[in-house]
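Quick note —
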Amino acid sequence: MFAIPNAHTDKLVLNKYLQLPQGDRVQATYIWIDGTGEGLRSKTKTLDGVPKSVDDLPIWNYDGSSTYQAEGRNSDTYLHPIKMYPDPFRGGNNKLVMCETYKYNKEPTETNHRKFCLEVMTKAKESKPWFGIEQEYTLLSEDGHPFGWPKNGFPGPQGPYYCGVGAGRVYGRDIVDAHYRACLYSGIRVSGTNAEVMPAQWEYQVGPTEGIDMGDDLWVSRYILQRVAEDFGVVVSFDPKPMAGDWNGAGAHTNFSTLPMRKPGGMDAIEAAIDKMSKHHIRHIKAYDPREGKDNERRLTGAHETSSIHDFSAGVANRGCSIRIPREVAEKGYGYLEDRRPSSNCDPYRVTAVIVQTVCLDE
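Predicted structure written out below.
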């Protein structure tokens, strides 16, 4: 049992201080991925004026030995700003800043997959790759039990919770709505949200966005979600199988298309892409969670709307396949495909990069 002190502080008192004028100075919160490949860290820097672009933001540093990214005897690790967003927590001219991480020798850290992803997207820019990721997550109470579940038992079986309405069917909607609005304020293209099959599990969709923007926006949306949940005293879990047994896991289904796929007659391009992906199943599985498939092993069992991690499959409107072609796409003859294999704790830079490598670059 553990408590979350932040849940017990009075946010109205905080509001009084956040409304104080701050002059021309701006608070910029630098955000980065830590050495686990799935955790986020942040710290805030004061700027003397409003930055017009990321070029106005200075490179900063932090103690990489405390984030699993360096040794204590050589711990300085560097933050390179790459994208800037309006800050939904402080408002005004304050900013959230997504960063890449670099070691003392100017090489990217082991979990900086953005640098490589950008190189891939630049090479494939003529294909105009679009992505939309369906980010699933689970809300947990202070004791680590799913939010709203009976403390000494389980809710009723799955069935009434997906897209449900009512206090007995959905838990934590306040958090979901606050996160949704905060993302829109920050300019992140959240296209929708819904309650998921397992109670206390939710999904939001980011996209469509092109190229590198998918990774940037999804990581910052995760940061915003966790910050919002802080205020409510609730924990966000991106674990792909938070509850063992007859409960759905959590994924990050990735919708993907290229310019030829989106044009009339694009089904040929979609089928060609699926054929290419079928030949690199293991490579994709290794890129689709931070532990090279070990996390997804618990989720991709062939049950609970998943395919088997060991086999590649594709089909129209089939949620038990690796790749699903939406029925509307099959009927129109063009559009996009959905890769259902990425786990909820995946790194979107790795996911989008490997898809483009396989489909667009034939690498």
